[in-house]
Specification:
- The protein has 437 residues and is of the alpha+beta class.
- The chain has three domains: 125 residues, no CATH class; 55 residues, no CATH class; 156 residues, L,D-transpeptidase catalytic domain-like (Beta Barrel), CATH 2.40.440.
- It has 13 helices and 15 strands.
- Strand 1 and strand 2 form a beta hairpin.
- 32% of the residues are buried.
Length: 437
């Protein structure tokens, strides 16, 4: 109840038609009111990043009797939080406090600092010299990815590169310390927009998670990540591949009711026309090489020569396609079925190298799981009755078998582009389907 009130207060302040300086002060007051018995840290533990202005003109202004602004190593500079032993009059979760503190800090930052666009066209690597290096490092400090001292230098040092890697990890980028267009895009995102994204997504996430049971499977689409919760604890965390922007993975809630070992694949018409027939046009042996069978709509098998398949692929293809189980099957070893209106499911894949990509919006809507063996074994051990048959079929790739589960496993496909992670860091991801413009 109080969490909802806290979110409403934050949203009301953000929408007020007042200047940003006053808005920032109101947000700080809101955070201070959450837990007014918290004790402040001594001044020698307090540091303020960057220059001060007329809104916050000295340490004592922000280091009041309730909160201290603290910048320790390995933390983001948003700790307007009470100490752990603080006593509050109302129950507020740690995650809510972390989110509220971070949003407040970002709003304060938007008032205190100009955030002009940094522009350069080349890649920036360790050892390079560029006039924007100083500004980049300043932003990394302000956003909490660096605790190094800011120097008047245009050299991209190894110390700054460590901070860039931290920043890249928090934004779902390849942590290679190379500053290119993707890293620069996130560095240019102004703090006010960061606060808006965090507020929008964390409000939805906190309310959503509050209604979940102890056992569920959750896929955050923009994060390309799957979580399995069992008895209220994370039992499995895996990278996933989701739908490309033209064929997005839907946002939905359902229940996994069965698992298929060695599945066959009935190819959807859209994938047949968009992806497979162009390959047949170039190679008439494609169906045979990939273990596909072709059927008419009376379910009769159709046989043609390679030249005939090529000719048919260039016209109105009158048949349906099914790939038989085996090592070439696109679904791999396992398929996790849950009822939905989009014909999507979770499954294995034969192309595991794609999990190393930072951008994993690559499928036609279904979700491919990197740690699929671990998930299948957990499902078999926890929810499959005929464990002996399961064990026997694991040694073959040709026999397809559906295993009904003795209890449903709730599955949630969600879309959160910003959140506070388990270590208290704010995470951001690309809005791959342009749903949060």
């Amino acid at each position: 109840m109080y969490k909802m009130y806290l979110f409403k207060r934050l949203k009301i302040i953000q929408k007020l038609s007042i200047n940003n300086k006053l808005k920032s002060m109101l947000l700080l007051v809101m955070i201070s009111s959450i837990s007014h018995h918290a004790s402040a840290l001594p001044l020698h533990q307090v540091s303020i990043l960057g220059r001060t202005t007329d809104v916050i003109d000295n340490m004592n202004t922000i280091n009041n009797e309730y909160y201290a602004y603290v910048n320790h190593s390995n933390t983001q500079p948003d700790n307007l939080l009470p100490k752990n032993h603080a006593v509050s009059d109302v129950p507020v979760s740690k995650k809510t406090l972390q989110f509220s503190s971070r949003a407040s800090y970002l709003n304060w930052l938007s008032v205190q600092y100009k955030w002009d666009e940094i522009i350069f066209s080349n890649l920036l690597r360790i050892g390079d010299r560029a006039p924007m290096v100083h500004e980049i490092h300043a932003r990394l400090i302000l956003l909490g990815d660096s605790d190094a001292q800011l120097h008047q230098s245009n050299v991209y040092t190894a110390e700054i590169a460590t901070a860039v890697r931290n920043f890249q990890r928090r934004h779902g980028l390849t942590a290679d310390a190379v500053i290119g267009p993707d890293t620069l895009k996130w560095l240019n995102l102004n703090p006010l927009r960061r606060s808006e994204l965090l507020s929008q997504n964390m409000e939805e996430k906190i309310h959503f998670m509050a209604n979940l049971g102890d056992r569920y499977l959750l896929v955050n689409i923009p994060a390309y990540e799957l979580l399995l919760s069992d008895n209220g604890k994370i039992a499995l965390r895996s990278r996933v591949i989701v739908g490309k922007p033209k064929k997005p993975t839907p946002i939905l809630t359902s229940e996994i009711k069965s698992i298929v070992i060695n599945p066959s694949w009935r190819v959807p018409r859209s994938i047949l026309e968009d992806d497979l027939l162009p390959k047949v046009q170039k190679n008439g042996d494609f169906f045979a090489q990939r273990n596909f069978k072709v059927f008419n709509y009376q379910n009769q098998t159709i046989e043609k020569s390679p030249a005939e398949w090529q000719e048919l692929a260039n016209g109105q293809f009158p048949y349906r396609l099914e790939q038989m189980p085996g090592t070439n099957n696109a679904l791999g070893r396992y398929k996790f079925y849950f009822p939905n209106d989009f014909s999507v499911y979770l499954h294995d894949t034969t192309n595991t190298n794609l999990f190393n990509n930072a951008n994993r919006a690559l499928s036609s809507g279904c979700i491919r799981i990197e740690k699929v063996d671990e998930l299948a074994n957990w499902v078999a051990n926890s929810l499959v009755d005929n464990k002996a048959l399961w064990s026997n079929l694991k040694f073959t790739r040709k026999t397809t078998k559906w295993f009904p589960l003795n209890d449903v496993l709730p599955v949630h496909l969600v879309y959160w582009t910003a959140w506070i992670d388990d270590s208290g860091l704010s995470q951001y991801r690309d809005d791959i389907y342009a749903l949060q413009q």
